[in-house]
Amino acid sequence: MEVISIKLEEIAKLGKTSVSTVSRVLNNKPGVGKKKREIIEKLLIENGFYNKVYKISQDAKRIALVIPDLKNPFFGEIVKKVTQIGKKKDYEILIFDTDENYENEIDITNSIVKGNILGVIMCVVGGELSKNNIKKLQDFSIPFVLFDRELDFYNDGIFLDDFKAGFLGTELLIKEGYKNIGILVGNLKYKNMENRLRGYKGALEKYNLNINENYIYEIGLEIKDGYEVGRKIFSEDNKLEGLFSCSNLITLGLIKYQKEYGEKIPLVAFDNPDYFDILDLNITCVTRSVSEIGEQAINILLRKIDKNTKNSQKIIITPKIILKGSEKR
Question: Which stretch is the leader sequence (predicted)?
Fold first, then answer.
């Protein structure tokens, strides 16, 4: 206890504040301004105070993997691959699930900078707002690698060519003879969703087809969102002939609605999770190698940690099509 008391006094002196103010910051209590709190937190971290309080070993080899939704099979596969490789390299992988919530991402980032973590693999949830959290990692010299969702000006990571994915999925439906094609897309604050929508529009433009804004359904990324958009689509008086779905959980929700109400529409999905085959859904999809993304992400990060380098590396994965017949009438 004496060590902590002395340390608090030292931090207070360095921060030109009182011991009680430092204590409030340490215990996450209100009553300290944002700027002063950030100064004190940085001093606490730089002086290894959190490591002593929470008994974090300086020799621990920890990597944080921050994902938006552990229920999504895509992120589950990422976790599996990253932990497999991490274990072989004697790294402990700490899994953080933001639950698609930016406030959670802020809290997790704050925990990471306090936790003697050597590096971070992250799929952001705040869109461009997440730059604030990435900057915080940089301020504390914590190497990071992004995956799946890009951020402008940050080139460290592994991503899909999402424009091409949107283009290929839409083009496949066009080649089946459909002209009125819709898209089910997640929140457009995410760069990957924005680019898939751009690919969809690019395919329509290439084949001189009109872009009908009423056929662009921007929705959430949960099964329930796919179900509800199915209800909306099949209750509307529209001329939709085919759909490209930008998320596996959206697709599952849509199919659930179709099966319950006996509806059907030509469909191309994004991703090819195992449960599509387990449920014998036979869904044509635009997909990528999920294990490759996980493997590349942790290997890039380990090189940064081992070589203590800030060199950025950006890898773009090319999508591929798996034909199973759902694109046909």
Answer: none
CATH number of the domain that residue 172 is part of? 3.40.50.2300
H helices then E strands: how many in the chain? 13, 12
Q: Who contacts 320 (Cβ-Cβ below 8 Å, separation ≥6)?
A: 286, 287, 288
Same domain, 166 and 284: yes
Q: What are the structure tokens assigned to 32, written together?
A: 């300290």
Residues 221 and 256 both lie in one domain: yes
Q: Which of 95, 120, 72, 47 is nearest to 271 (CA)?
A: 72
Q: What's the total number of domains in the chain?
A: 3
Q: What's the mean per-residue pLDDT of the chain? A: 90
Question: Same domain for 219 and 170?
Answer: yes
Nearest partner of 173 among 253, 241, 238, judged by Cα: 241
Q: How far does Cα 288 stand from its chain's mean position? A: 15
Residue 13: Cβ within 10 Å count = 12
The rounded distance, in Å, linking the Cα atoms of 216 and 218 is 6
Burial of 317 from C-beta contacts in 10 A (0-12 / 13-18 / 19+): buried
Asked if 46 and 32 count as a contact pair (C-beta separation under 8 A), the reply is no
Both tokens assigned to 280: 């014998």
User: Which residue range forms the structural domain that includes residue 102?
Assistant: 62-159+290-317
Residues with Cβ within 8 Å of residue 32, at least 6 apart in sequence: 21, 24, 25, 40
Comparing 113 with 323, which gets the higher pLDDT?
A: 323
328 part of a folded domain: no
CB within 8 A of 250, min separation 6: which ones?
A: 184, 186, 219, 221, 222, 223, 225, 226, 229
The enclosing domain of 29 has a CATH number of 1.10.260
Token digits of residue 163: 């424009």
> Within a domain: residue 324?
no
The pLDDT of residue 3 is above 50: no
For 19-37, write each residue's pLDDT tens digit: 788 877 876 678 888 888 8
Look at residue 1 in the predicted model and tell me its pLDDT: 33
SS3 28: coil
